[in-house]
């Protein structure tokens, strides 16, 4: 087969569409028994919408999205407002696209429906990649069920714990940040009228934060509570527990404490990333999305960066062929994603400052900035790739 994509998440399916739109045949294999997303809400900034527009998916995505009027940054302890980012008409005029929030499964469903309808895309599930062979001008993939594939190009879009990355780079396990998240979406009717139903609400405090926003056309309300576990020990699983969460948020403002009573506690999500690496490819094997550049979620850019990857990758291969196309893709994407990975870590530290001069200086700066000041988000949201071919 021409191109094989391992991984049927957001990045893998978007890449399949990006290639198929250039009349390139694609085969996607997914480890799970069905295509699906685990999790709840997702924020999609204008750079994500740029990619979805290029994939002709923006209208389908808008059917399930919510378009918040602002992002409000609140002090989780005092309950006071620190700053806001206006997402209204000025924002749209500045970036050409609106800021939207939605359920992750709705985004994946839109991608999956379009892939299933495309004659150049073949999809398979229950294909767990266990071994890869680099054959120079091709690659061979062996799955746990005994099936095997030979391909001109293998794209590893298999996420944070990527088997293809381990084959290419073998840089060990992802890095645990010692932070853990509890998340879920509940009916909007269960939420207080003060929750901010027209906003993305960000509440930050020492070593913890809470994010809230509506999803699925406003029918559900997504909440994510994140905190740093003092019980973390490598190789153990008895840390980041609900009682730790209650202790972290117990001193928070009333609206924060009230929100915690609605947080689902049946599953915890440890937060990982990796350091940037110098290359994502060898011969006919290449990485994309979280397999290439997993990042912490503080900039809400993980899915956006995978979507950007997909469009640039499809354009590069269509313009230059496989070998030169991979080189063009890496030249465009490696520096940008490395910067996002690095800044995401720094942004997390900025959110979670303890009392002291640094936090006081941060709060003073935030209170002084204007809601229509987009300078800090221009680099992320106003993406215009140096390599782009329609």
Name the descriptors.
390 residues; FAD/NAD(P)-binding domain; globular; alpha/beta; single chain
Describe the structure.
The protein has 390 residues and is of the alpha/beta class. The chain has one domain (3-174, 273-381): FAD/NAD(P)-binding domain (3-Layer(bba) Sandwich), CATH 3.50.50.60. The chain is 35% helix and 25% strand. The protein has eleven helices and 18 strands. The chain has helices spanning 10-20, 46-54, 58-62, 89-95, 104-117, 163-168, 242-249, 254-260, 302-351, 357-368, 375-381; strands at 3-6, 26-29, 41-44, 70-75, 81-86, 100-103, 121-124, 129-134, 139-143, 148-151, 153-156, 175-187, 199-205, 208-215, 220-228, 269-273, 281-282, 285-287. The strands form four sheets. A seven-stranded mixed beta sheet has the order 5-4-13-14-15-12-16. The two termini are 25 Å apart. The model has no long low-confidence stretch (mean pLDDT 94).
Number of domains: 1
- The helix tally amounts to 11
**What's the helical proportion of residues?**
25-40%
Question: What's the overall geometry?
Answer: globular
How would you characterize the largest beta sheet?
7 strands, mixed
Strand and helix order? EHEEHHEEHEHEEEEEHEEEEHHEEEHHH
Named CATH architecture: 3-Layer(bba) Sandwich
CATH superfamily: FAD/NAD(P)-binding domain
What multimeric state do the chains show? single chain
| Count of extended strands | 18
- Distance from first to last alpha carbon: 25 Å
The CATH C-level name is: Alpha Beta
% residues in beta strands:
25-35%
The strand order across the widest sheet is 5-4-13-14-15-12-16
Q: SS-based structural class?
A: alpha/beta
Radius of gyration: 21 Å
